[in-house]
Every structure is written in structure tokens, then in C-alpha cells.
Specification:
heterodimer, A: 122 residues, alpha/beta, 5 strands, B: 724 residues, alpha+beta, six-stranded antiparallel β-sheet, elongated
Chain lengths: 122, 724
């Protein structure tokens, strides 16, 4: 069973995204902030992380940086909103398998997530 | 040649008349002036002949000059009638013809027979007076009739005339009284009544001078005033000169008895003392007399002067203009007063304030290029309708006729231009006085003074209004800049709402899709619950999104909702919410260090929101600057909001532990466009200036700032309390 980590400070997002992917037989873990995400990645080593850029305590970019600094090259999909092109560039340099733009519909996200997970299995 | 009193007086009169003659000759413009010129010529002719009579050494020579003199005397009456004829605009050609004809008739008898003047006799032991033949008596009667008839015509025209013409008429009648009452005394010795025609010698010259003044000068003094002034002058100086003379001649005996040969010192000292005191007495009595005569006029002139001084204090332009017309209409007691103000947009003069009778639609605007405006720009002084009418007739000027017509359209008796330096700023239009009285020279002087004050006051009010507008623009600009700093956070918030909505809807749809084959009613209930939960969440998110938008709108709209009671805690919450679009909670904590139940503030919610937002925004920037300069990741910013209650104010303090401000910069903090924000490039330098304006000017509150570099800043605002 694939394991998906969803990192977002919006409770509604976490709840509904979790519900959605669980219905597809995916093991979903959730984190509401950057530090929690780092802890969870270290603990449960998810196959794919959906990482929101702007959050309360720490930005998604910071989380990604810390992850890469720690030598973790796991798959990350960045969820960007109204960010500067500078940040987008920074994200690309840090190495992500993709990024999606808010707002987006769940079925679009499903498509991206499923593609990545399939690739992983294949 | 013999010099006597008669010849001297006649010669002086002649000189006066000759001077007046040349003045009229230089200034004549109308037929009336021409006729008047002929009258003066006749008078001068008589006076010159009288001088010659006075110096004649033989009766024959005197008789010769008496016959010559009668040319003047005969024509004085004829020309008087002709002047009246012109002045009153009579259409009685036959009478005119008859009057000329009788003149030539008697002229013939005068020169060619002895029936008119029979000879001379020696009178007053000094000169020869004419004796009369039988034809002289009918001449005398007709002469008197012509003079009498002329006066009847004048009196009958009185009702017909208004304004300047009426005043001229009064002068005409007054000068007639002076002239002919004196002139008639010249006939007395001829009829054997030996009274020296002392006054008669002068009167004709005086006559010419008085009426010349009235018809050549456009602005004639009120005749009551003229007579009073002259009367007082004569009265005072007859005493000043008369008392020493009386002393010298009447009291010489007594004085010699007391003072011996140096008795003359007494009248000399008296005359010196009286001569010195004379002008003072004269002016004193004159002022008293005029105060009485012109009591009403003086009263409103004083009122106008006093009012004008207070005008510059009124800042509201509309109120000021209304007050000006009100004062004018009320104190001068006129039918109406209009005020036109230059309108830079239309480049015309627009009617801004009226009082009394309504303005017609055509007179809402005065074209800048109209004759009236050009004329006022040229003369730069109040103009009087009556004078313009008079002048336009006299000069036959098209421009003046246009001016006259425009004044008629406005119903204007007087138009007062209001200048600031070279620019015609405004025009005051005054209707007729309700009493029917004329505007006097003094009135116009007062209006000129008033116009200067009004110009100052209007400029003042305009400047104030402009600066108020500029300030409003400044406020708006600063607000927009604030929105700029908020835009990033705002769009993130709204975007997040949409994103969440998409997720919730997507999941619900997915649930519906997956449950199509479900038959189990329990399972079905579960799905329904899931979907309704999603819908509730959608509602929540929509509400949140709406609140964000409302918050933004509340802030951007001009603070027009006015003043009311503001709950501090609500205000702070709103501001914190706004600030959260920008402020990162992990770096800065905002602490509300006050009890919930604070007294209400009397203020404008939006404006106060802006004040607090600006202060918190500044504090945040200062904290971030300190964080970046210290290079300390763990540095935690803090903004503490606390309150204190004084007698009148609720004092709100905001303390931060940011970068603080250097001592040398503190003094400049409230200056517009001053900024120390290097960290945050978007500092407009308007924030603190706007805060100060809002708190101090709009709320009558107080702002204090105290800051220590690298330690932090304390902001204290004192706001008035509302009804509790």
C-alpha cells in the first residue's frame, strides 16, 4: 500500500484530501505544519509528500530544504499558491517531482498523485 | 481808472467764471455741457462788464458798459432756460423760440434807444449805476418770468429723475437759489434802492462753480452733506476771523485803556488762538453733524468693517460666501446681493451665493469675456449703475452700453470687483437700497475695503479647502499603499478558500460517484451525512472568504460612515485580522494586555483601524528588521497592546521590541514622506503623518511616540471616550 503524506495548515484540506485518497486505497498521513511534517517523514517514510508552501510555522520551502539537507531525496509534490517566481525557482532547484497550483480540483490532483505513485511501483 | 469794491468783486467773479468756463470747455461731452458752457460765458460776460462799469470814470463810459453788460444779463435768463430745456429733455420748441426772440427784441432797444437804459447816476460814492427807461420794466417782468418758469420745469422733472440725475437736479436748484437770489440784488440800485450788491457780485460765479461740479463729476456728494460742510465752514470761520475783527474795531477804546498802545496784541493773540483752534473746531463740528446726518449709513458701514475683520476666520467657503451676501443685504438693506466666484474649470464667474430677490437663469454665469468683466478688470473699483448709464450717454460708448445692459440684467445698482493682486477673484452685485437712497462715495470706499477683506477671506477658505482635498488624497494614497502590503496575504487567503472549496466539492462528487451502486440503506445514510458535512464546510469557507472581502472593502472605502462609538477590542481584532495577511505568527506575537470591557471610544472605525494597522505594521517591520540585523533565528517579536483610562481619554499603548528609531530620526517621524524602512522597501513615509492627522485633527486626540534604538518603540494614542 502506498503511503501519502499531506502537509497543510488548513484543517479542511487535510480532512477532505485524506478522505479522498483513502477511498483509493492509499495510506494517508497528515501534518498541519512544517515541523510535524519533518517528524512524520522521519518516522513513517511516506512514498510521496504533498507539501503546501505557505503555512503558519515554517514554509514548505524550508521543510523541503531541511529534508534535502538531511539527505532525504523522497518524492515531494509542492502545492503553490500566489508565490513569487523566485520561490518557484528555488523549489525547482531543491528537486521536486512536481508542483501544482492552488486552487485546483481534486481530480486534477488525483491524476498527478496517481501518476507519481504508479511510477514508484513500476 | 478807479479801483473800488464793486470792480474788485466783479473782477474776482470774472476770474472764477473764466476758470470754470475753461474747465467745462475741456470736459464737455454732451449738449447739456454745451448749453451750460454758454450760460457760464454769459455770466463771465456780465462780470467782466461789471468790472468795466466799476472802473468807469465817467457816466457815459459807465452807460456804455451797462449796455454791454445787459447782453450778458439778457442771455443769462435765456441760456438758463436752454440749460433747463436740455437737462429736463423738454420738447417745447415754440417757447424756446419765443424766449430767444424776446431777447433779441430787448437787445435792439438796449443798444439803439434810450428807452431801455436812460442814463446813469453816481452811487455808493464810488461808481455809476444805470437808470431805467420805460422799456426796462416789461423786460424785467419777462426776465423774472423766464427764471420762474425754468424753475417750474425743474421742479416738475423731480419725480421723473432718479439716481445721479436727481442729485444733479438738487444741485441745480440749490445753485439757482444761490445765483439768482444774489443776482437779483444787482437790480435793486437800478430801482433806486441803494443797497450795495455785495453778495450779488459773487453769486453768479458761485452759481457756475456749483452746477459745474454737479454735471462734470460723476460721483456727487450728497447735497445735504455739501451744504452742511459749507455752512459749518462759514460759521466757524466767521467766528475765527470775526471775533478778532470785532475786538479790533469795536473794543479798541477799552483795550487801549487797559493795555495802552500795545492794545493790538489782544486781538492778535485771540486770532492766533482761534486760528489754531479753527480747523479742530471745524472738523469736530463737521464730524458731529455728519454723524447725525448720515447716522444710518455710518452704522452699516461700521458693521461692514467689523464683519469683514471676522471673515478671514471662516474656513468653509460656501458658508463664507453666504455670510458675505447676508451681511451685505441685511446691513445695507438692499433688494438683493449676488456673489460670483471665478470658476477655474469653466473659466467663467459662477453665481455662488444670493440673498434677497432671485437671480434670473441667464445670470447664473458671467462670461469672463463680457463687457462687464473686462470693464471691472480695467477700472478695478466699484462701479455704480447710474454713473455707467450717465457716462454711456455722455460718451456715446458701445462698451459702456453693454456694461449698462449687463447691469440691468443683474438688477445691479453697484458692482464691486474683488481682486487678489491682479486676478479678479469674485464680483459682488448689489441691488438698490430699499430706502431708495443713492449709494454715496463713502459707501463705495467701504465696499472697496470690504472687497479686499473678502478677497483675503475667500483665498483663505479656498486654500483651506484645497489643502483638505490634498490631505484626503494623501490619506487615500497611504491606504492604497497599505493595501499593497496586504495584497499578498489577502490573495493567499482568498486563494486558499477557493482551493479548499475545490477539494471539498471534489471529494463530495467523488463520494457520490463511488456510491452509485450502493443499496444498503445504512451505507446510504452514511454517504448523505458525508455530503451534508461537505456542504456545511463549503458554507463555512464561503463565509470566511466573504469576511476577507468585506474586511478589505471596509478598509478601502473612504471613512464616510462618520463617527460613532467604537469598541476597542473589536477594533483591535479587526486590525489583527488585517495584519495577519502580512504578519507571520511564528515571528511575532500580538498580546492583548487589557480587560475586555474597555470604555467606548468616540471615533471613526475605519480611520482608527488604519491608525492601529499602521502602528502594528510599523512594529512588525521594525521587528523583522531587528531579526535580520541580529541574525537570530530564535528572536521572537512581540507587540503588546495595553490601555489606561484618563479623565477624558482612553489611552491605547502599543509597545514593540523591534529595531526602534535612532534619536536623530525621532524628530522627523511625523514628517510626510520620511521613512527609515530600508528593510521594507515599500515605506511611503506617509504612515505616521496620516496617523497624526487622523488622531489629532479628526479625533482631537493625541499621539506620542517614544523609541529607543535596538530596544523597541512605544506608541501611545489618546482617543476621546464616547457615551458609556
Amino acid at each position: 500500500m502506498s503511503k501519502l503524506l499531506i502537509v497543510d495548515d488548513e484543517a479542511d484540506i487535510r480532512e477532505f484530501a485524506k478522505h479522498f485518497f483513502q477511498k483509493r486505497g492509499i495510506d494517508v498521513v497528515i501534518a498541519s505544519g512544517g515541523q510535524e511534517a519533518l517528524d512524520l517523514i522521519a518516522l513513517s517514510n511516506p512514498d510521496l509528500t504533498l507539501l503546501d508552501v505557505r503555512m503558519g510555522d515554517m514554509t514548505g520551502v524550508d521543510v523541503l530544504k531541511k529534508l534535502r539537507d538531511a539527505g532525504n531525496q523522497s518524492k515531494v509534490i509542492m502545492v503553490t499558491g500566489v508565490e513569487d517566481p523566485v520561490i518557484v525557482k528555488q523549489i525547482q532547484e531543491l528537486g521536486v517531482c512536481g508542483y501544482v497550483h492552488k486552487p485546483l480540483a481534486l481530480d486534477e490532483l488525483e491524476h498527478v498523485v496517481m501518476k507519481e505513485l504508479k511510477e514508484l511501483k513500476g | 481808472m478807479r479801483i473800488n469794491l464793486f470792480s474788485i468783486l466783479a473782477f474776482i467773479s470774472f476770474l472764477i467764471s473764466a476758470t470754470v468756463f475753461f474747465i467745462v470747455l475741456q470736459n464737455r461731452k454732451s449738449n447739456l455741457h454745451n448749453q451750460w458752457l454758454r450760460f457760464i460765458f454769459a455770466a463771465a460776460f456780465w462780470e467782466f462788464s461789471a468790472f468795466q462799469i466799476g472802473i468807469s470814470q465817467t457816466g457815459d463810459r459807465a452807460l456804455f458798459w451797462w449796455k454791454i453788460a445787459h447782453v450778458g444779463i439778457i442771455f443769462l435768463a435765456i441760456f438758463l432756460f436752454h440749460v433747463v430745456y436740455e437737462f429736463c429733455g423738454l420738447k417745447k420748441k415754440r417757447i424756446l423760440f419765443f424766449i430767444y426772440a424776446q431777447g433779441f427784441f430787448f437787445l435792439f432797444f438796449n443798444f439803439f434807444t434810450n428807452f431801455f437804459l436812460s442814463g446813469t447816476r453816481y452811487v455808493f460814492s464810488s461808481f455809476y449805476y444805470g437808470t431805467l427807461g420805460p422799456f426796462y420794466h416789461p423786460f424785467m417782468i419777462i426776465w423774472l418770468l423766464i427764471v420762474f418758469y425754468s424753475h417750474i420745469e425743474l421742479f416738475m422733472s423731480y419725480e421723473k429723475f432718479q439716481g445721479v440725475r436727481r442729485t444733479q437736479l438738487k444741485y441745480f436748484i440749490a445753485s439757482n437759489l444761490v445765483g439768482f437770489s444774489g443776482g437779483l440784488t444787482n437790480f435793486l440800485p437800478a430801482y433806486g434802492i441803494d443797497i450795495f450788491p455785495f453778495y450779488g457780485c459773487f453769486s453768479t460765479a458761485l452759481y457756475c462753480a456749483i452746477f459745474t461740479y454737479a454735471i462734470l463729476k460723476h460721483r456727487i456728494m450728497d447735497i445735504r452733506l455739501a451744504i452742511t460742510r459749507t455752512g459749518i465752514f462759514i460759521l466757524v470761520y466767521s467766528f475765527v476771523l470775526g471775533i478778532p475783527f470785532a475786538m479790533a474795531f469795536g473794543l479798541q477804546k477799552y483795550l487801549t485803556a487797559f493795555f495802552g498802545p500795545t492794545w493790538w496784541i489782544v486781538p492778535l493773540i485771540t486770532s492766533t488762538l482761534l486760528g489754531t483752534a479753527g480747523p479742530f473746531i471745524y472738523f469736530f463740528i463737521q464730524r458731529k453733524a455728519e454723524d447725525t446726518l448720515l447716522r444710518d449709513q455710518k452704522r452699516y458701514q461700521t458693521t461692514l468693517k467689523q464683519a469683514s475683520a471676522g471673515m478671514t476666520r471662516i474656513k468653509d467657503l460656501k458658508k463664507l460666501l453666504n455670510m458675505i451676501v447676508y451681511i451685505l443685504a441685511r446691513t445695507v438693506n438692499i433688494t438683493h446681493a449676488f456673489l460670483y466666484l471665478y470658476d477655474a474649470k469653466s473659466r467663467d464667474y459662477a453665481l455662488e451665493a444670493t440673498r434677497g430677490e432671485r437671480a434670473s437663469k441667464e445670470s447664473y454665469y458671467l462670461n469672463k469675456k463680457s463687457s462687464l468683466i473686462s470693464y471691472l478688470e480695467r477700472v478695478r473699483a466699484p462701479i455704480v449703475f447710474e454713473e455707467i448709464r450717465q457716462q454711456s450717454q455722455d460718451y456715446d460708448s458701445d462698451e459702456l452700453k453693454d456694461v449698462q445692459n449687463e447691469l440691468i440684467m443683474l438688477g445691479a445698482a453697484v458692482a464691486v470687483p474683488i481682486f487678489t493682486e491682479k486676478r479678479l477673484l469674485a464680483i459682488g452685485i448689489l441691488g438698490k437700497k430699499k430706502s431708495g437712497a443713492m449709494y454715496t462715495q463713502d459707501d463705495l470706499i467701504v465696499f472697496s475695503i470690504l472687497a479686499n477683506q473678502v478677497a483675503l477671506a475667500i483665498e483663505n477658505a479656498q486654500f483651506y479647502e484645497e489643502s483638505k482635498q490634498t490631505q484626503e488624497q494623501l490619506f487615500q494614497a497611504e491606504k492604497m499603499a497599505t493595501i499593497g502590503t496586504m495584497a499578498d496575504g489577502l490573495s493567499h487567503q482568498i486563494n486558499n478558500r477557493l482551493h479548499t472549496l475545490g477539494f471539498i466539492a471534489g471529494d463530495a462528487l467523488d463520494t457520490i460517484k463511488l456510491s452509485k451502486e450502493v443499496q444498503n440503506p445504512d451505507k446510504f445514510q452514511e454517504i448523505l451525512a458525508e455530503i451534508s458535512k461537505a456542504l456545511v464546510k463549503i458554507q463555512d469557507n464561503v463565509r470566511q472568504g466573504g469576511e476577507i472581502v468585506q474586511g478589505l472593502l471596509r478598509y478601502t472605502r473612504k471613512g464616510e460612515e462618520g463617527f460613532g462609538d467604537v469598541v476597542l477590542d473589536k477594533l483591535v481584532d479587526e486590525v489583527i485580522e488585517m495584519a495577519q495577511f502580512k504578519i507571520k505568527k511564528e515571528y511575532v506575537s500580538i498580546v492583548k494586555d487589557y480587560a475586555q470591557d474597555q470604555p467606548l471610544i468616540r471615533g471613526n472605525f475605519t480611520q482608527l483601524q488604519e491608525v492601529l494597522f499602521n502602528i502594528i505594521d510599523n512594529a512588525y517591520d521594525a521587528i523583522m528588521q531587528k531579526k535580520s540585523e541580529m541574525g537570530d533565528d530564535h528572536f521572537m517579536g512581540k507587540i503588546k497592546i495595553s490601555t489606561r483610562q484618563t479623565e477624558k481619554f482612553l489611552e491605547v499603548s502599543l509597545l514593540d521590541n523591534g529595531m526602534g528609531v535612532k534619536d536623530e530620526d525621532q524628530i522627523k517621524l511625523f514628517t510626510p514622506f520620511f521613512t527609515t524602512k530600508f528593510f521594507n522597501k515599500k515605506g511611503t513615509g506617509l504612515g505616521l503623518y496620516v496617523i497624526k492627522k487622523i488622531v489629532e485633527d479628526n479625533h482631537q486626540g493625541e499621539v506620542f511616540i517614544s523609541s529607543e534604538y535596538k530596544v523597541g518603540t512605544l506608541f501611545v494614542i489618546r482617543l476621546p471616550m464616547g457615551k458609556q
